Amino acid sequence: MESKVNYTLVGAFVLLMSSLLIVFAFWLGKYNDNANAYCNYKVYLTESAAGLAPEAAVKFNGVDVGKVASIRINPKNSEEIELTLKVKKETPIRTDSTAMLQFFGITGLAFIEIKGGSRMSPLIITSDDTIAVIPTAPSLIKRLDETLSSVITKLSGTLDHTNAVMSPQNIKNFSDTLGNLKILTQRINSYQDEIDLLLKNSLQTGQHIDQAMIKVGDSANTVKGSMETFKITMSERLSPTMKSWEATSKKTNALLEKIDTSINRGDYDLQTITANSTVELNELLAQSRVLQNEMELTLKSLRESPSDLLFKQSKLNPGPGE
Fold this sequence. Notes:
Layout: H1 2-28, E1 38-45, E2 57-60, E3 63-73, E4 81-88, E5 98-103, E6 110-115, E7 132-133, H2 140-165, H3 168-190, H4 192-265, H5 270-304, H6 308-311
Parallel strand pairs: 1-7, 2-6
Antiparallel strand pairs: 1-4, 2-3, 3-4, 5-6
Helix pairs in contact: 4-5
């Protein structure tokens, strides 16, 4: 009887412990989570998913919001990796949010990082029937790989160009150019004294030009003064002659008027008229000869020495009747 009681206690203990282990396993597997508290999203990666495993973390701006439910190759496009994400419903995933592959330091373990996007953008609507797709962005590793590939390509092209430029023929040409430059420099140094003299002469020539310009200005002023003197001289020399011609013309007109008056009166004593007129005509002829001589002297003086009108101050002889 005593042995039967011991077997009963052992059996009850085993059943109790088994039940506790099953409950603990369910709790540990989180089967007690509320399935309605999560939403499913699809993500399609175009790069390697090495280091990413199911149950890997899903972070939204660094905060844990879910996990990776499944990983497989996209059956419709073998170049893509299809991920199914299980994310908390309250996570604000918007239309401009992006998902990318990230790594924990240097451990090689990967997770999915979702960038929030603008708060003004609408939220992505997802359901069990129609699972929404979150756009992807290249990971840091992929960006570095693309950048390094581009840099390596450019470096390779640069090295090819450098090798082409630094060919033996170009090196020889460059060496010859340096030698010619050295010879040219030596020749320039040998002509240094001549260059200095040329510069000195140039400065002196510039000074001479300045002085010549000053003299030209003075000459212009002199010519202007000479023109004024010429005008005054011509006025002084021709004025008495013109006055003499004017006086002679007046006397001639008076004589003609007198003769005309005598004729109109009927005075035909031509001898008396002729005697008086002859004296006056003789005087007019004498004055005309004097004026003619004066004009001839003036013109002769101008022909022989035209500069006397500008630079010589001479005293004019008085005209007839002055």
